[in-house]
Amino acid sequence: MLLFRKLLDWKRMGKGPERTLETGETAPDFQLELAGGGSRSLEQILAEGPVLLTFYKVSCPTCQLTLPFLQRLQDSTFRVVAVCQDEADRAREFNEAFEVDLPNLLDRADDGYPVSNAYGITHVPTMFLIEPDRRISWTWTGFHKRQLETLAERAGRAIFRPTDKVPESKFG
Prior knowledge:
Layout: H1 2-12, E1 31-34, E2 39-41, H2 42-46, E3 51-56, H3 61-71, E4 79-84, H4 88-97, E5 104-106, H5 114-119, E6 126-130, E7 136-141, E8 143-144, H6 145-155, E9 169-170
Parallel strand pairs: 3-4, 4-5
Antiparallel strand pairs: 1-2, 1-5, 3-6, 6-7, 8-9
């Protein structure tokens, strides 16, 4: 709730888009600290090819469901990079608890969530597939089985196994 109130305040002050960015739009560049040290910009990340940028919060149950499945798409036709709205130690604890090994960029409350605001994030998880020219080619908020299967088809990989118990949808 605090994040939502802060987003409303920033939007009133003109610090973020009026809505979440959509397919076809250009992704804003950024520079964020990595949970493991150092920093990365979107430009640096895209130099290695397309990326699925996934915004999440450690305490979000829908994020806890979604990110382990997204891990299965890592190193496919695109990479998955998580943007954590918590501190580095919380991101590491999340990765350990949910057996996720994704790079984590930190978009923290203390910094005013600059990237979340630039992308118009109001709910997590929110995912953007960004092409090397910074064009957003796919986006989704929450967990939706069919949408994630469509994304996995683009990755050339299966995201769900026959033994997985997967709900049809779950909103963030």
